[in-house]
Amino acid sequence: MCDESSLTTVIAKVGQERSAGAEGYRDRPPLSRPQLSARVGSELGVSGWFCIDQGAINAFADVTRDWQPIHIDEEAARSGPFGMTIAHGFLTLSLLSAMALDVLPTLEGQRASVNYGLNNLRFVTPVRSGDRVRGRFTLKNVSERNTRSHLLTIGVVVEIERQPKPALVAEWLTLINS
What we know:
Elements: H1 7-20, H2 33-38, E1 43-46, E2 50-51, H3 54-64, H4 69-72, H5 74-78, H6 89-94, H7 96-103, E3 112-123, E4 132-146, E5 149-160, E6 168-177
Antiparallel strand pairs: 1-4, 2-4, 3-6, 4-5, 5-6
């Protein structure tokens, strides 16, 4: 159940950190290019848990204008296929950046990382309101685009606490610029 990890709580905390200039993910030492390449095929890490509460689902519905009853109408959703409201798949997907802050390494001299897209994405299991999710990241490939730019292919599985199947699986592309 949701607690201090609820998205509405996390959003408020992140807003305070951003205002204060907090950059916790940069506390990890950056990797050299050979160190990063040596990690291809290995798990980079697992994020902390994020609780997807009804407040976050409703806010996402408002931003995306996706007000389907399975997302926002708790009474109607009880008689639907999932027995309660579920998060939008794109809400779960949008958390990858926040989850990645917990685990993805930085590269020596890195100035920016840019979301470059997805090769594959499947929404496997619905995330119910109140579920906790976390990301598991595996480095699949590093390719040099030029001397100042590398493309990372990252395997991502978003797990749902106490569920045998993940919320989503994806192959995420991130462009690192030095």
